[in-house]
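Follow-up to my post from last week.
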Amino acid sequence: MTRTAYINARLIDPATGLDTKGALLTEGENIADFGATLFKDGVPDGISTVDCGGHCLIPGLVDIRVQLREPGEEYKGTLESAGRAATAGGITTMVCLPNTLPVIDDMSVLEFVARRARKLGLAKVFPYGAVTKGLDGLELAEMGLLAEAGAVAFSDGIKPVADAQILRRALSYASTFGLLIVQHAEEPSLADGGAMNAGETATRLGLSGIPREAEIIMVERDIRLLQMSGGKLHFAHLSTSDAIDVVRKAKAAGLNVTCDTAPPYFALNETAIGDYRTFAKLSPPLRSESDRVAVIEGLRDGTIDAIASDHAPHDEESKRLPFAQAAFGGIGLETLLAVTLELHHNGHLGLIDALKLLTSAPADLMGLKAGRLEKGAPADLALIDTDRAWKIEADDLLSISKNSPFDERPVQGRVLRTIVDARTVYELDA
Amino acid sequence: MCRFMSDKALDNIRFPHSHLLGTEGLTPDVISLLLDRSESYVEQNRQADKKKSVLHGRTIINLFFEDSTRTRTSFELAGKRLGGDVLNMSVATSSVKKGETLIDTAMTLNAMHPDVLVVRHNDSGAVKLLSEKVNCAVINAGDGRHEHPTQALLDALTIRRRKGHLDGLLVAICGDIAHSRVARSNIHLLNTMGARVRLIAPKTLIPSAIDRLGVEVFHDMNEGLKDCDIVMMLRLQTERMHGGFFPSVREYFHFFGLDYEKLANAKPDALIMHPGPMNRGVEIASEVADDIGRSAIREQVEMGVAVRMACLELLTANLPTSGGAKP
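User reply:
Got it. Predicted complex:
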């Protein structure tokens, strides 16, 4: 059995709070041992050695909101391109949205995606099952069968489950299987036709606005439905102070509700759109500065449980259009860690707290055995230099689509090596 | 009354942008330059011989993705009177209907070496996007609900000729602000030139946070028109309205249509303006629109040609006069 020793590392396990100089040993595909005293007296013969140079060896990141474009839109992204981009970003586990073509509302599609991803051997892929057939919001998908086939949770992807009765039943039905419903909270009758956050910038640019209330109203409504039906509800990519506040209160009241956000919502605000920059056209839209600050506060006080990349690849033809016609979404796999580390470098979060939002916290939400340093667990790891400065250049990213809202942003924190099942799947060129 | 500038003066003062995409960000000096230059063409356009040759050899393409008669005709006349070759391309006859993208259309036209593209598009920001992909001068002839700079300039010229100045005037812009690029361009220009701007409309037709653009907002015509020097009416753009913004045309006219009764609140010599085309009996009563003493609506159309001549002239003056590749 292949054995590899990672020596001279700063071991960080956010789940347990471990932060120590030490070493880690992998055996076969798993973590065999780790700790401060391991290999104190040198590495025995027959074990290959990787010198970590004093950098942080952490659990591989777990990204719970990724849009894969395979099957159906391979020109925008494939399982392989997403896998390569993910591992370049230190991500070893992705949970993908069901909005492929065909959609993942059926066991066969789910199995196809899972099998293709396994064969590639890059970042591991766990799909969401659709809440409703065809993501049409009308009829429940075969949630039980999808769960048996490996769906980790349920979501209609980039669409909300807008019909109150359908969501009520979905929550109630999914609770039988102990599964989570993940909601994109945006009231369509308020948001439809809008291109960016409603307010001064939208008015100045002459663009239709999506009011903040579109998010707030749906979060408020859904929490009422959760109270009525039971179950577990998770809000994806929250972007407004009021919605976060509603979740804060619901959590305090003991409801089974969680939420995440994505880097654009704590690192950018609506001014990033500038003169109609379509790479900054996201869903939900980038909000005002006060909302951005509120998202950081939500991360600090634990109201927001995790950070996901919200990776949404789009080709040039979908973005090189007048703003109102351009597609919503930006890529994020390769920039997730670096932009999140800004929270640490700017003093908003401790390093371990920031990393926890990317590892054990999202893994726990989805019930995945991932995101931890644990003896006997798969050796999914990332070696990162938390201080290394670099500039995000969209054209240099590995994703097929280059639509990063962070293009040309100087950041701090770089992935040096990514390990999946004890195999090195990514290494930064020296 | 006229503040003419000699042709010689143009050698020293240049329009400091390669395109005219909006009035937002234009300085008072630049706006005055455009207006002064326009003024010189007003007289010329009233002569029997209207032709000049400043655009000799230049090609101007009017690229209209949205229907327009008056603006396109006005630009066409302006180009021709300055001796340029003008080509009209409208969406109905273009390949955009065949699925070609805006960028492809721009690149195709660009390959034919036009000197100026005059572009109208129904999406905000589309003209700016196009301007980034071509190496000729671009004039925004209206993009979505964003800007329509030559309309604001012709309005300003009309006001300046009638009132002698812009600063200190109280201007009411009334009606469909939400869907109006004319309103936005006028707000920026009038504020820059020191006028005070009021907006009067039902709440559903006022876009959010518009007060941040430096205007006062009213929802009552009688109150809003009080002591105004200029009453600018806007066309109700029902083609851009999805869903109910107001219950009926009858109700709209009752509260927001301009008639003599409401107009009585404005100054006795208040000027009535409208960018056209008018919906008579909807936003403006016919007798008010046709009041020769008060209405400047036809004069606005006349000023339009002069303003567009000035814009074409000043923008082409920035283009290289010889050689192939442009910077």
